[in-house]
Amino acid sequence: KKYDVIFSSSVLEYIPDFDQALRDVKNMLNPGGVFIVSMPNMNSWYRKLESLSYKLMRYPRYLSYVHNKLTPHSFNRKVERLGFRILSYHYYAVPRSGFAKKILPLSAGSSLFVSVFRKNPE
């Protein structure tokens, strides 16, 4: 069965065979179908500190299950190479601190991004 829309929210980072998962999404979508995905933003200062904390103290424990750590740019390029056109991407989970908001660019301050793609006609 094929679908017009596939939505993946904070799932793909946990999939061991990331490339196969993306190929499966492509195969499940109708031509012109839309793929909406959220992923952790590995450009964010929060994610970098979290990774350092895990290396030093094995905390937070959920990071032991994360297999895929990508920046928005590297993720978007990977999906585009599979035959998708990016429609948009946005940063989310902006720091609450006014100071951090003022000094960090959105790409470094936001710990999550959402990308929207359209599958190219075959």
Number of helices: 5
**Percentage of helical residues?**
25-40%
| Whole-number mean pLDDT | 92
Strand order of the largest sheet: 1-2-4-3
Order of helices and strands: EHEHHEHHE
Described by the principal axes of the CA atoms, the overall outline is globular
Kindly state the number of beta strands. 4
Question: Largest sheet at a glance?
Answer: 4 strands, mixed
Structural description of this entry:
The protein has about 120 residues and is of the alpha+beta class. About 35% of the residues lie in helices and about 30% in strands. The chain has helices at about 20-30, 45-55, 70-80, 100-105, 105-110; strands at about 5-10, 30-40, 85-90, 110-120. The protein has a four-stranded mixed beta sheet with strand order 1-2-4-3. The longest helix has 13 residues, at about 45-55. The model has no long low-confidence stretch (mean pLDDT about 90).
In short:
The protein has 122 residues and is an alpha+beta fold.
List keywords for this structure.
alpha+beta
Task: Give the topology.
Blueprint: E1 3-9, H1 18-28, E2 29-40, H2 45-57, H3 72-81, E3 84-92, H4 98-103, H5 106-109, E4 112-119
Parallel strand pairs: 1-2
Antiparallel strand pairs: 2-4, 3-4
